[in-house]
Amino acid sequence: AGPTEANPSVSSDSERVIVVGAGISGLAAARHLADRGQGVVVLEARNRIGGRIWTSGKWAGMPLDLGASWIHGIDSNPIAALAAKARARTVVTNPDSSTGYLADGSEVDGAQAKAIDRWQSKMEDALSSYQDDADKDASVRSVVERALRWSSLSDDDKALISFGLNDYEHEYSGSVDRMSALYFDSGADIKGKDVLFPGGYHQITDLLASGLSIRTGHVVKHIDWDSSGVTVATDKDTFLAGHVVVTLPLGVLQRGAVTFGPGLPANKRTAIDKLGMGVLNKCYLRFPKVFWPDTDWMTHVPDVDKYGQWEQWINISRVTGRPVLLGFNAADFGRTTEGWSDTRIVDSAMGTLRTIFGSDIPAPVGYQITRWASDPYACGSYSYNKIGSTPSMRDSLAAAVEDRVHFAGEATHRDSYQTVHGAYLSGIRAAKEVAD
Ligand SMILES: Cc1cc2nc3c(=O)[nH]c(=O)nc-3n(C[C@H](O)[C@H](O)[C@H](O)COP(=O)(O)OP(=O)(O)OC[C@H]3O[C@@H](n4cnc5c(N)ncnc54)[C@H](O)[C@@H]3O)c2cc1C
């Protein structure tokens, strides 16, 4: 039967494709299919599209990205092509444009900067020789600490090494205590400059979404299939289709928030279980005036007992001309702060800024804070390679089930997981599977 009058959204149209999730991967899949004449409906739990791309309009005239900010590596990056198509202005941020500070707030001098670089190279060497020689996985931290004879080091050197370890956590989002030394960096190298969008990343998702049939406010609960088709049940309705493209974040799959009938194959369940979902949170602070240096980045090396706290900041005034700083917290500390009140988070951030810039800096006039791990439709920021996982598990995560249930999303991209472009490419890949 076709759509019924009582329930127009129920259709047995076996040609139709349902896409679960209106993040960049779901939108890419739906766009690809719709452009080829395929009937496609996107079901999205939130009342907005974009998923982990989320531009806040809370401060008038100052769009701020609470999820992804950058196109990582603009060379042959499909998101750079979409940005051009959307006529979205981009601004390069340069990792070398950075001012560093030590635990006491003093600026890192030339010799100290060299010491940081030296420890960073030693860490990289230790991890790459481990990858060459080891036959058993271990955590990034344990490999680094063993190779650098941790217990024999001074507290100052430990602080510099810890800063390097936390840098991995910012990049990969997992804790170095659980991140796989063998595979933590198994993704493809980023090629080209990093750029962000002063007008917000939503320009990319809006471009893809234009004209698509998207049902927001539909929380998918069950996905069932057999030889005749697929049934997708949300909290409001039931939808029938020939194929479904599932773009649920890894953390949502891990939580078992959506049931699959019949169950998912064993290798996919193993991949869901073993891959890691990490955390990166943002805290934007708006001030009455700029009191910080005119570099893109500011870094802070805290004492070892304050591991991972407010180590990386980006100077938003370079991008928007407005007096705004963005502090990041990753992995365990990022997760810990999610249990704190906004006031406690802002006070903690201000503690670091006062150590660096003095107690007479102005109080912030506004803040915006993310809690990605507590978000039930993300359950984390992006995936990472946890001890016990292997890169091939991403292929298992990506594999279609019986040519009916297809999977996309950043975690399914073996080379470019953790990124917008990886998620986008995974959506196109899933759409091509359906269309074939
Ligand atoms: C703080 C942060 C900073 C980042 N920075 C960058 C960066 O600078 N550059 C970069 O390239 N990448 C960055 N990333 C990663 C990037 O945002 C993601 O890789 C990408 O957006 C993921 O897209 P996706 O389509 O796979 O998943 P999502 O965008 O999460 O899409 C999945 C969709 O499914 C929906 N959903 C969940 N559960 C259900 C349900 N039960 N029913 C229906 N719908 C459901 C969700 O609401 C969501 O809209 C960042 C991520 C975070 C969180």
From TrEMBL:
Keywords linked to the UniProt accession: Oxidoreductase, Signal
Domain Amine oxidase: 24-434
Coiled coil residues, start to end: none
Cofactor: FAD
Binding site for FAD: S25, E44, A45, V220
Gene Ontology molecular function, alphabetical: oxidoreductase activity
TM stretches of this protein: none
SUPFAM superfamilies: FAD-linked reductases, C-terminal domain, FAD/NAD(P)-binding domain
Binding sites annotated in the UniProt record for substrate: F328
Protein name as annotated: Amine oxidase domain-containing protein
Phylogenetic placement of the source organism: Bacteria, Bacillati, Actinomycetota, Actinomycetes, Kitasatosporales
